């Protein structure tokens, strides 16, 4: 028999009854039932119940073991009585009567519990991550991550992609985030950079003639952490394809994403065909370029109903160019209590509030004059009484029943529904409008069943450029290496803010999983694209010289995308925070509490690198 085990703690079943087996693992918990001792023995694979009574030769040894000790046991497999079978675990039909026990390692008193899923301070959990990883939910999330990556690799190979590795030590590249710099010992005063992404390298792979590339790529960005972003490093499915247009990339990645989420999504529905939503349409309808389509609410522009109306705040606002009034429908929100609650929410977001109208069951009547053509062709004027749900709230009172009814009809609402209104410069209120849309939908749902699906979409037609609201300068709004729609002609002739790029994001349930683009593979277009944001040819040659040089020697049209592995697993695992699907994450201050990083260098290390630290303060 093997020194430590003949089976894992998930392998035994009814077929093994009567066999002598050897198991090894951690003591998950010990229970004393009046002279009969039970141990739940746990390993990576599962749990087996071990039993020792007073007749067992190992009884005294079992009495002294404690939680998280590592032990090896020999024993005989016995069937549980029918009423004691545990259907929740694979080994629930059996238990092992212990004959011999060896303590392989003792555990001191634990700084955090392993049994159960108690809420513990994150700082403690990260400092003792090796213990935290023993907890079942977190352990299973990390196993899920491994399985997802294995599935992705298998699917990519089946699609004809080949895996290549790109350098980790490279040159600094201005790609939108801060680089991590690595000093060079052999070249004092010079630094490598850790790659923010393998962007330039994967394009060079296409220029080198490799048709379909992918890798599970580590990326390094010195950014502040968020719930869906890990500080320091993350992993992405990085891929690139030659001789493709935008739709070719979609046709390659869509089945892969759908397949992975069907395989690991626990039976939850997955969007069969991912809709394409232009960026500006997404910002209008959803207030975000990463919309959660599980929420069906779509915002609309309703400025015409307030222009010249009795609601002077909106009416005077609309006299200025670029101002808009947008409505957020709220099906089922037709009560003053709900409207007041949402108004208070808006005030917490820094707004004066949100205007609202809600429609009652009571019927309002409005006499309108209308023209009617009789059968003899004569057109006459008639007065018609129209009946409709009455609108309530300050806005309805100020704009009158006719405009209130026109709003209801445009928004497709009925009695018992409501609508909220925001006005001004859309660029200033669109973020809050997008948040309000999600809060309204979540508040009005009787349960959370609507969350049990994966709704994907593509966001397309991103503007190539945007204007910095503080400086007024133009900058790239997305990826500087993207091909502009219309090519060089568009860059030379059109207003830069009207130029769209062949850029796209893939979004699932309000989480941006990836950005991608058809690449700019022509030097003259790249020089012009950077010139528009104020960078001359020298700047481009200095920062992207390797890629520009390569494009001069025959570059194929190419494009790609890079879905984030961490975010994909976070969605599949129903995790609220990305740190729950990363084995050894940093904390919110970008510190590794377990290993003590970052740490001060020694004087010897600084001398070798030719560096000296500036005095603090």
Q: Look at the structure and give the mean pLDDT.
A: 92
| Total of helices | 16
Strands of the widest sheet, in order across it, are 6-9-10-22-21-20-17-11
Span between N and C termini?
65 Å
Major sheet summary line: 8 strands, mixed
Coarse morphology: globular
What's the gyration radius in Å?
A: 32 Å
Quick summary:
This protein has 617 residues and is α+β, with helices and mostly antiparallel strands. It contains 16 helices and 22 strands. It is globular.
What is the fold's blueprint, element by element?
Layout: E1 20-32, E2 37-42, E3 47-52, H1 59-64, E4 70-79, E5 94-105, H2 122-127, H3 129-132, H4 136-158, E6 162-163, E7 181-183, E8 191-193, H5 199-207, E9 212-221, E10 232-242, H6 246-264, E11 276-278, H7 279-286, E12 300-301, H8 312-317, E13 324-330, H9 336-348, E14 355-373, E15 379-392, H10 394-411, E16 418-424, H11 426-444, E17 456-460, E18 465-467, E19 474-476, H12 487-493, E20 503-508, E21 511-518, H13 523-532, H14 537-551, E22 558-561, H15 565-572, H16 603-609
Parallel strand pairs: 3-5, 6-9, 11-17
Antiparallel strand pairs: 1-2, 1-4, 2-3, 4-5, 7-8, 9-10, 10-22, 12-13, 13-16, 14-15, 14-16, 17-20, 18-19, 20-21, 21-22
Folded structure, characterized:
Helix content is 29%, strand content 25%. It is globular, with a radius of gyration of 32 Å. The N and C termini lie far apart (65 Å). It is α+β, with helices and mostly antiparallel strands and 617 residues long. The longest helix is centred in the first third of the chain and has 23 residues, at 136-158. The strands form five sheets. It has an eight-stranded mixed sheet, with helices on both faces.
